[in-house]
Amino acid sequence: MEKIEKQLASLRIAKRSTLSEEPAYLLDIDVSKPAPSESSRFVAVSCSNKSIRVYNRETLNFLREYSSRPGTLNGVRFARACDSAVFSACSDGTVKCWDIRLATQNAVQVFSGYPSNVFISFDVNCSDLIICAGTEKVEKDTFLVFWDARGVTNCASTTKEPLGVYSESHNDDITKICFHPTSPNLVVSGSTDGLVNVFDINKDNEDDALTSTCNSDSSVSFIGWSGKDYKQVYCVTHDEGFCWWDIAQLDTEEPITLLHVLDVRDAVCVENDSLHYLVGGLYHEKADKLFLIGGTSTGNIHLISCSIDGLSLVGTLGGGHSATVRSFCWNLTDESLLTGGEDAQLLLWKPRAVERSLAKKASMKIASSVQNRVRVHNSSLKSRKK
C-alpha cells in the first residue's frame, strides 16, 4: 500500500488536451491495447455531445471525431488485437466500429439490434470474439444483445445481425456491462433494477447461463471484476453506494458479500476536503487490491482502498480539473492516469511529470445526458421503494 501511495503522490499533469470548439463532458475513456513491447498509441473518449473523440496517447493531440447524430454514442472500447479499431454503443439500436486509420466518418462495421433497442451500455470480450450491449427499458422489455465480432476490420461497411439475446434477467435499464478480463465466456451486467448478474455465455440458454445474481438494493452505475483470478465482482451505485461480492463462495456456506456500504461519502474520512461522488473502481493486480475513484465538484480526485474491514482514503490528486471528474483510465504498466471531466478537459498524469502550462479551464454549465438519466433513476427508485 505504501508503494501505491507513493505512486499516487508522484503523479503530476504531463499533458492537457486543447479545448474543443464544441466543449463537452468527457464521460468514458479507453486506451488502445498495444503489443507487449509497445506503448498505447491512442485514447478514445465518449463525450456528452454524442460524439467519440480520438487523441494521440502521448501528446493528447486531437486526431479524429466520430458522430452518430441524431443517435447518442454511449461508452467506448478498443479492440484488444487491433489498436485502430474502436467501438461504441448507439441509441439508434446499433454498436458501431470505426477504424481510426481511415479518414472516413463511416463505421467499418455496424452491429444492428432489434427495432425497439436503445443501447446505453456495451463491452467487447477479451478475445475480441463477442460484443454484448444492454438496452434501456422499452415498455416491459430490457435486453442483453450479443454479436459475433470476428473479422471486424476486414469488412467494409457491413452490418451484422445478433447471435441472440437475454431478456429475462433484468427488468430495468441495463446501465453497465463488463466482460471478464481473462475468461471470454464470462460477463457481468448491472441495472437500475439493482441487480448485478454474472453469466456464462457458453451455456445453451439464459437460465443456465445466469450463474449468480447479486442485489445492490440501488441503481447500478459501475461494475467490475476483482481479486486473484478475478473471482469477485463489485459495483458502485448512482447514490454513491458500494457492493463487493466473492462469487467463488457461491457453492460454499460462506457469505458471498465481502462489503456493502450504503453511502461511501459517509464512510470515508477526507481531511480538509470532502467526497462528493464516485466515478468507478479499479483492481490493481500487482498489489491484489481493489480501489475506488471518487472526487469533489471542484475537481479533486480521491483514491480509496477497499478491504473487507471497510474503506480508507489512500491519497488525493488536486490542481488538475476545475469541475466534477466523470471518467478515468489508469495504466498500471507505466503508472500513468488519464482523467476526463465536466470542465471538458482530458488530462494525462505521469510520475514526476512537469506541465508547461498550468491554466485550468472553467467548469461548463451544461446538462449531460448521463446526469439527466441518473436523476430519473434516483427518483424512480425512491418511488418503487415507497
Automatic annotation (TrEMBL):
SMART domains to which the protein is assigned, alphabetical: WD40
Stored InterPro entries? WD40/YVTN_repeat-like_dom_sf, WD40_repeat_dom_sf, WD40_rpt, WDR89
Q: Which UniProt keywords apply?
A: Repeat, WD repeat
Q: Pinpoint the residue ranges of every WD repeat in the record.
A: 167-209, 318-350
Q: Which domain of life is it from?
A: Eukaryota
Extract the SUPFAM superfamilies matched here: WD40 repeat-like
The answer to whether keyword Repeat applies is yes
| The keyword Repeat belongs to this UniProt entry's keyword annotation | yes
**Matching PANTHER family, A to Z?**
WD REPEAT-CONTAINING PROTEIN 89
This chain belongs to the protein called WD repeat-containing protein 89
Could you tell me the gene encoding this protein? Wdr89
